[in-house]
Amino acid sequence: MAEDILLAACSPRRGGNSDFAAHLLQEALPGRSLVRRVADLGVRPCISCGFCALHPGFCSLDTPEDGAKALFEDMQRARFCLVISPVYFYHLPAQAKAWVDRTQRFWACGEKPAHGRILSAVLFGARPRGEKLFEGAERTLRYMALALGMSWQEPLRLYGLDGPDALEKSAEARERILEYAKGFGGEPA
Ligand SMILES: Cc1cc2nc3c(=O)[nH]c(=O)nc-3n(C[C@H](O)[C@H](O)[C@H](O)COP(=O)(O)O)c2cc1C
After folding, report:
1. Which listed CATH number (3.40.50.360, 3.30.70.240, 2.60.40.3080, 3.10.310.10) goes with 5-184?
2. What is the pLDDT of residues 24-80, one digit of tens each?
3. 8 Å CB contact between 52 and 59
4. Over the stretch 5-36, which tens digit does the pLDDT of each residue have?
5. Mutational pocket test of ligand 1: of 89, 134, 165, the residue with most ligand atoms within 8 Å of the beta carbon
6. Does the beta carbon of 126 lie inside 6 Å of ligand 1?
7. Kind and range of the H or E element at 157?
C-alpha cells in the first residue's frame, strides 16, 4: 500500500459527517491516505469463544465476508491510523465497537502487530458541550492502541455536529480538522 494514513470512518450513516471528514482529509493528504467505512465491512462482534486463546493471533469469526482481519492488516501497513467517529450514547457506534473487540485475538496472546504505529481519532457529537462526551470512546480506543502496540495520540474533539451536513457547513470545524491533520507527520495540501 502506498498510503501511509488509514482513515477509518465509523458512522453507519452514509454521506454524513464522518464520511465528509474522511474525504476532506483524503483530499488534503493527496496520495497518502486510504479510507475504510468500518460499518460497511461486515465486522461481526466477538462471541468470546476462546479460539484466540488457543490459536494466538487468529479469530474463529475470520471469513472472507468479515472485514476485521483486513482492517488489522491495513493498520499494520499504515504508519498512522485515524478513527473518525460520531459518539453514540457516549461511545463508538456498535459497528466500530465490534471492530475494537475483535482486537481480543492480539490481547489474548500479547502479540503487538502494529508496534510503532500511531492511533488517534476525530470524535464528534451533537451535544454543544459536556466534558465527558468523548470519555467512553477515548478510553476504549486507548486500550485498543495498547493491545496492538500502537502509540495513542490525543484526539480532536468536536461538539455540536448533528445533521449529516453539519460539518460541511461549519468552516470552523473543517479548519480544525485540517489543522489537526498537520500532526499526522506531513503538511496538508
Ligand atoms: C444512535 C445515536 C446515538 C447518539 N448518541 C449521541 C450522544 O450520546 N451524544 C451526542 O452528542 N450525540 C449523539 N448522537 C448524535 C451523533 O453523534 C451526531 O449526529 C453525529 O454528527 C453523527 O455523525 P455522522 O454524520 O458521521 O453519522 C447520536 C446519534 C445516534 C444516531
Report:
1. 3.40.50.360
2. 999 999 889 999 999 999 999 999 999 999 998 999 999 999 999 999 999 999 999
3. yes
4. 999 999 999 999 999 999 999 999 988 999 99
5. 89
6. yes
7. strand 156-158
